[in-house]
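Budget justification aside, the reviewers requested a transparent look at the raw inputs and outputs of the sequence design task funded under Objective 1. We therefore reproduce one unedited record. The lines immediately below are the structure tokens for a 132-residue chain.
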């Protein structure tokens, strides 16, 4: 994993953990689905990274994906928590170790459910960074 991904994911996890609603309602924030966790919880997916360099500066585009898992009867609580992910990510500082965030943009979200399993709500953002 590149240092850009590590820097932006660490900042994202800190922002998500500090968000009052997410901190109160999620049982945890994990790197991938944990073997045994109470619902609802959030799993961070490794970011897709591509080059975003200029002629004079190194840059990266990182796709951050977060999946919230919930076992409720309806997706109401899940949808509410997904909205708070976007709110929390707006609190990420523009300067992360070794990088400056040029833009942080919501890309998409969607909800799916296996008939025999929990709800999964994916929230994806694009972060463009320049090396400092």
């Amino acid at each position: 994993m590149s240092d850009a991904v590590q820097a932006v994911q660490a900042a994202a996890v800190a922002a998500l953990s500090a968000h009052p609603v997410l901190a109160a309602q999620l049982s945890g924030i994990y790197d991938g689905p944990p073997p045994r966790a109470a619902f609802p919880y959030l799993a961070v997916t490794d970011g897709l990274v591509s080059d975003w360099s200029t002629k004079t500066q190194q840059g990266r585009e990182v796709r951050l994906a977060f999946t919230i898992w919930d076992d409720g009867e309806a997706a109401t609580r899940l949808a509410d928590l997904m909205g708070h992910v976007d709110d929390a990510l707006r609190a990420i500082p523009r300067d992360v170790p070794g990088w400056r965030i040029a833009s942080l943009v919501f890309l998409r979200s969607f909800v799916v459910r296996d008939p025999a399993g929990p709800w999964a709500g994916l929230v994806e953002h694009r972060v463009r960074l320049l090396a400092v």
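Residues 46 and 79 are 22 Å apart (CA to CA). The domain at 3-131 is CATH 3.30.2000.30 (STM4215-like). Computational costs for records of this kind are itemized in the attached budget.
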